[in-house]
């Protein structure tokens, strides 16, 4: 009798453990909880809100089709407020209190750099949109196991912008104006300079100006490049500082070109409010592809940065596919994600296990404006 009771007790304990840990391997039938950490207030809130809207719509579409393997997807949002301490606190709250299964993180490199070491303490995969490769490695160059990016790196983007400017636009002399305390801005400088040098048009040291975001007298800071008469000024920056730079150059009577990164894309044009015809910018999306154009039109003014919306949507859908395949176990999701290939609104994203970022064949597009209307110039890589 005692032996029977002992066996019965063991069986009961096994079922209790299974009940407590039933989510391992994704076998539980409870909700799948997704965290979205974004700057929802502060200077880059338009980017964060756009990513969040993409994630929200992706989750709505997933749930409308029955969820993931019959499990409802629930969203928890966190405002990082453009502050690194707020971001770390929000992350810890997400993984320890709300117990999210996966996280879609911000497109802000400074924030992700502040978060990266903390991600090593938890087994929660996070996809961000920060394009600086340094966001995903420690000081020794070792990858953080649970941290990934869903768009091409600064290395890829900076090289494309320099290649287009020199080989396609015929620009001969270039100045560089970047923000020294902005990881995104800094990360885009060397790839651009290296490619320009490889193409036989190195940028003169005197024409490279770095400044801090606290310095607000942009006209005085950028005046030497105007005086140098360079054909183009490369300004990798977020939307708000880029608008200040464009306005300063207009006030100074600069007649050359401005080369910007992703944040020269709409809604830069409407926020700037003037003629943007001298601006080149890189983008993740073909705004004239039929489905993409229809979605942008349907979004209207609800999204400040359409490219961030599409990236947020694709990030969530990619995570959904992976969870459907391997369940919600963090290690399994991370292992699958490191070499996963997903085709979505921004094209085919194929992850590189060596960088945790998309491989170079992920499509990017160069644009300019006809006054305020975006005009596509070239797709990279060429097909």
Secondary-structure element pattern, one letter each: HEHEHEHEEHEHHEHEHEHEHHHEEEEE
Strand fraction band? 15-25%
Oligomer: single chain
**Terminal Cα span:** 75 Å
Mean pLDDT: 91
Characterise the protein shown here.
This protein has 383 residues and is of the alpha/beta class. It is built from 13 helices and 15 strands. The protein has helices at residues 2-20, 45-64, 84-96, 109-119, 154-168, 183-187, 189-198, 218-228, 239-251, 268-272, 290-299, 306-326, 330-337, and strands at residues 32-38, 73-79, 102-104, 126-128, 147-149, 174-179, 208-211, 232-234, 257-260, 279-283, 341-344, 347-352, 357-358, 364-370, 373-380. It has a 7-stranded mixed β-sheet with strand order 7-6-8-9-10-14-15, sandwiched between helices. Strands 2-1-3-4-5 form a 5-stranded parallel β-sheet, with helices on both faces. A 3-stranded antiparallel β-sheet has the order 11-12-13, covered by helices on one side. Helix 5 (154-168) packs across helix 7 and helix 8 crosses helix 9. The longest helix is centred in the C-terminal third of the chain and has 21 residues, at 306-326. The chain is globular, with a radius of gyration of 23 Å. Mean pLDDT is 91; it is low at 1-26.
